[in-house]
Amino acid sequence: MTLKEIIKSLQPWFVSCKPQEVPELAFSNIASDSRKVVAGGIFVAISGVAVEGWSFISQVVEGGVRLIVGEPTLTQEEQTLFTTHDVVYIQVSSSPEALAALVALYWDYPSEKMQLIGVTGTNGKTTTATLLYRLFSQLGYQTGLIGTVENRIGKEVIPATHTTPDPISLGALLHQMYISGCSYVFMEVSSHAVVQRRIGSLFFRGGIFTNLTRDHLDYHGTMLEYIRAKKGFFDSLSTEAFALINADDKNGATMIQNCRAQVYTYSLNRAADFSIKVVERDLNGTALLLDNKEVWSRLVGNFNAYNMGVVYAATRLLLPNLPIEELLTALSNLQAAEGRFEVVYSGTCTAIVDYAHTPDALIKVLETIRPLLSEGARLITVVGAGGNRDKGKRPIMAQEAFRRSDLLLLTSDNPRNEEPEQIIQDMLEGLTPQEQLQTLINKDRKEAIRTACRLAQKGDVILVAGKGHETYQEIAGVRHHFDDREELRTALSLLNNPS
């Protein structure tokens, strides 16, 4: 990667280059973290939420980098520092977009050599991306997955740290997928990633919109800004891409305003390019009609009907020559993503673990379970709310959970750096004094789960919501091992074998 190539790739944001006349240079490393710079490499100064990248410039220069990319105009002192150490400085109008462009150049644009599909929305991203990954793998394609729970290259599992990785990690991951022979990659696209320009230089073959409800307002501030972030992804799609939209979501039409991609819709409730109909459902699965073709799914509930429908639709768009019978058979073999309506059975009751951590997701899960209860059975819900996140949704979640449950236990989720008692108190604000008296409280999530299991009677269903696939609980900045599924199995086992 030469300086000439770099300047060309940065033209949309290029302001200046100092010195203007420099010998041709080649670079073999890019970093945006000052701790990861190497001699002869490139450093891109990014303004972070907690850290200002430019504040480490002296340290980076002393570390031996040859090229720095950033937004500030150099002071005389900085100009002298750069000249003394033979550092080239490229000033740009947007360092996050410049970083994404440099990473794409460095890895020779791997996203253009595969079929990259982005999935965005408040709920359903993980399930949709995971089901597509599993389906295409089942059909014999080397497939990649980038998401909240894990990243996968074929069968190789790579731990995930963010829903959408940072540009440098993302570029390396896509390159590895390409050289490993992946032809399809399914990627969760978070609103944070759009706003922070992490995906700006990727080429998407398609974009999928699942739904949009309240979440991440601690970051975006307002629902309008949250909607704009999601819409930004569809605005970026090219004329060669498709946009597959949930027509039943009120924000679906907004997503495709001014969208250049070919638009397709899917729906349970209205005319659409791809139609979904629920024929029958129970706790073992759902009978569906997809474009009037019957298929049995192991996934439960209307929200999973949407997930199956969009997977069906995306596959029809990506593999138009695939025989429909082969597609329906493959769909019927799919299992739910980890921690998404994951059922834990016992001899007397049924427990369900779900990642529902927003009011809308919680409502959908509870409304899915309610009609499946046997006569006289109760729905017992264990739920908390995350610390250092949108506080406004806490009372709403408690209110919706109380209304749709026969018994509610409020507990901790990931308190992070907040006091668990305060988070629970915030949730209680959504309940009347009488409702508060009827609600059980235990900040110890393990004990709350065990209490729910002890109170459950034959036929009851326990929902443990909020953490889903997570195998940790973050308390005071420290992650401790914790898995809702493990805790449920242990608690139910103790009840069945009290010795």
UniProtKB/TrEMBL annotation:
Its EC number is 6.3.2.13. Coiled coil: none annotated. It is found in: Cytoplasm. One of its GO terms (molecular function) is ATP binding. It is an enzyme of class 6 (ligase). Residues 339-468 form the Mur ligase C-terminal domain. InterPro entries: Mur-like_cat_sf, Mur_ligase_C, Mur_ligase_C_dom_sf, Mur_ligase_cen, Mur_ligase_N, MurE/MurF_N, UDP-N-AcMur-Glu-dNH2Pim_ligase. ATP binds at G121, T122, N123, G124, K125, T126, T127. Residues 28-106 form the Mur ligase N-terminal catalytic domain. Its cofactor is Mg(2+). Catalyzes the addition of meso-diaminopimelic acid to the nucleotide precursor UDP-N-acetylmuramoyl-L-alanyl-D-glutamate (UMAG) in the biosynthesis of bacterial cell-wall peptidoglycan. PANTHER family: MUR LIGASE FAMILY MEMBER, UDP-N-ACETYLMURAMOYL-L-ALANYL-D-GLUTAMATE--2,6-DIAMINOPIMELATE LIGASE MURE HOMOLOG, CHLOROPLASTIC. Belongs to the MurCDEF family. MurE subfamily. This is UDP-N-acetylmuramoyl-L-alanyl-D-glutamate--2,6-diaminopimelate ligase. It comes from Porphyromonas gingivicanis. The lineage of its organism: Bacteria, Pseudomonadati, Bacteroidota, Bacteroidia, Bacteroidales. The gene is murE.
